[in-house]
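Q: For a teaching handout, I want to show students what a protein-ligand complex looks like in token form. Below are the inputs, and the small molecule is zinc ion. Please produce the holo structure.
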Amino acid sequence: MRKLEEVLNDWEAVIGLEVHAELTTLRTKMFCGCKLEFGAEPNTHTCPVCLGLPGALPVPNRAAIEGIVLAGLATNCDIEKHSMFYRKNYMYPDMAKNFQTTQGPVAFCMRGWLDLDVDGPAARERHGLDALEPGQAEGNVTRTEEGYTAHVGITRIHMEEDAGKMVHVGGGEGRIAGATHSLVDYNRAGTPLIELVTEPDLRTPEEARLFMQKLRQIYLALGISNCSMEEGSLRCDGNVSLRRRGSSALGVKTELKNMNSFKNLHDGLAYEICRQAEVLEEGGQIYQETRHWDPTAKRTIVMRVKETADDYRLFPEPDLAPYDLSDEFVEAVRAKLPELPDQKAARYATEHGLSAYDARHLVDHRATADFFDACMALAAAEGDGSRFAKPLANLIINDVTAYMNAHEGFDLAESPLTPERAMELVRLVASDAVSSKQAKEVFAAVLAEDKSPEAIVAERGMEQVSDTGAIEAVVDEVMAANPDKVEQYRGGKTGLLGFFVGQCMKAMRGQGNPKVINELLAAKLDA
Ligand SMILES: [Zn+2]
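A: Here is the structure, written as tokens, with zinc ion included.
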């Protein structure tokens, strides 16, 4: 198969996402008083309602309705005041009622959007950007200095309930294939679930990944879900189809399942785009089917041919009255909206003078944003205001984020790098006590040895030498030892400056202040 970049030169991928989030922070289920608890003893949180026993009547959970309205307001949706619940019929043991209670054509939240900022190498996967100047827009894309912003429509967010969990016994890795029997746990049945459906506005796997990441940040900020892709409280399916560049007709789409991490979401979509391109280029046909992403085999496999909406025989739920949300209710929920990631980024830019790029990457993770806030609170208490905002942002975006990416499960809030130590490190660099290169070593040592930056610098004798007299002596020595190079430099080969800096640093065993070395060298060589 061809590579994604090559495929995207000839084909345009049309991607839409369906994102399910369990409202895990609620205490009880959607239509009954059963407790919500992940990992509890099987079938200990059930009752006649969530087991669908005859005569049991559902009562909607008001807190869950608040949760979905929060989600809608935070994603720029219109809140529909009048909507109702429907029965989606299906026969499978994971739902004892044989139907799922969900919403019909009108959901609580309709017509929303999110803007995605894409930069880095993946920004090149979007076609036609080269023709645009920063600030210029085409379709749903606006070119920016570092990449582009994609405006992604949200069709709706509707409320539904989760099904129970099947456990297949005797097969490989809990799969149904080869299993001797299956067990069912109804603890999860009836868990409030919100499903967000995007417009088919996404064009690259990276955009899909960023959308999911941004949505997760918003839900976490709202406190409506723990958004654990591992535990399945945040799940994502992707629809993808291809069309020739320049064509506006939609191709046949496949639905991808089992993309239970950001990486799997990206890789699954990338694989499926390349697979479809290969089939189409060989004159084959794409079938509307549901496919399963297998991250180990790195391919997608057919699960089933797609059902049509008619198969579910959706009809109004007779046991639940249509919903009428009052203006007061919606406004009361709006008043509970916390500061959202985009607002936080805007505040970092105005309050601390950070670039849009830095501000955005700080809010990529809630942990890094919280850490930045804690550090800036310390700086404010010390009377430093925003003086160290930029170097601190650099430390967090470069070093801390790289460390987080390399160490799965790393918890910044519980790590040896406390806000106090981060500020200490930033101050050491700002005062020229250590070079930015040494700072990387100190950073790694703080995390590895759980000591303060000052203690590490003292222990390792790392203090940077900024003493002009000491550095001048070294500069003189280096110039005296390389008269030929000095002559070449003065003859116009100014690129040799780097050589001299390197020699001076070597002579000072890396402890010379590079700024001072550069200044003195330039002054003496140009003399
Ligand atoms: Zn129940």
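A: Two things your students might notice: The pocket of zinc ion is lined by residues 29, 32, 34, 46-47, 49-50, 190 (CB under 6 Å). The radius of gyration is 29 Å.
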